[in-house]
Amino acid sequence: MLQLPPLSLYIHFPWCIKKCPYCDFNSHALSTPIPAQQYLDTLLLDLKSHIQDLQGRQFHSIFLGGGTPSLFPTKELSELLTQLFDQNLIADKAEITIEANPGAIEHGKFSDYKQIGINRISLGVQSFQDEKLKSLGRIHNAQNVYRAIDELVSAGFDNFNIDLMHGLPDQSIKDALDDLNQALSLKPAHLSWYQLTLEPNTAFAAKPPDLPNEDLLFEIERQGKALIKAQGFSQYEISAYSKDRSSQTRHNLNYWQFGDYIGIGAGAHGKVSFPQTNTITRHWKRKNPKLYIAEQAFPYGTQIELTERPYEFMLNALRLQQGFSHALFEQTTGLSIQTIQKPVEQAIKRGLLQQNADHLAPTSLGQQFLNDLLHLFLP
Q1: pLDDT tens across 327-348, in order?
Q2: CB atoms inside a 10 Å sphere around CB 314
Q3: Among 24, 313, 349, 375, which lies 20 to 30 A Cα-Cα from 13?
């Protein structure tokens, strides 16, 4: 039977200083000042349109993403979070994260973030090598990263994530491991280490750079994972590593465990369950920030059909090393575990999935060929 899962809030800030050539997110390079007050007012109206979706729940995590949220004025960010706190929408000890660009963070901002209730920072580092950062179109350099880390630690943030890429243009194994060593030396609580991919409708897709070949990528990943493990980090998701369970990202875990989340802001997406009607809906907002502000027409949405739910669930849950319990599948999809018996048996037979009592998890082969595994659950 479908049950109400935990609820998160995603807030999208679509502006950045410069569009990176690999980025397929809804981000827009600034040509005029950010209309901060107008955007704040629209965000609050957007959230108000979802009040019925809360169904008595509070947000157990909030993620301010982009774009570059750290470009948004702290005054308006403070007003936004104050409204959420005042309306009792934020749970006690909720995880509240903001993404920050080392090249777009003003001196003193981390202290401001701490004061307004933000308790986790996700720093978009990507590399510590200036020439690699330049090839990625990033506006920061390695010195900016070290300054940002010093400032956020001084501001009292011990819960921070470093975003790091591998498989960069002309990257060697030594380059990739040097990046990892520098990231780990900064003692983050969490590390997101993922491969650069060429996404459609990006500058890199139109004009691909010279990326490492498959053999080199395999070796980078093999040696990189060994280095991360030696430093006391455990991999709990395809690209996520943490020192312990308490430093795993609560917000992303809610996505991966097929929890509910409300998305507000230009281009934001969300997913909400309704046990009384056994329905699950997805919603999305206008991508263009000018139209989002002008029209204030939200949300657009559609239902996830019963036949689509197994694939939608697996698309998230099979990213986790530990997999999922039968109970989690049934509670978040409203379907019996018997619904997926046939594809589960096929996956086990092919060595892509392993079963332990009432628990299913991808094997190492299943993780390596995740798309093949997911394909078995398509409607």
Answers
A1: 999 999 999 999 999 999 999 9
A2: 27
A3: 313
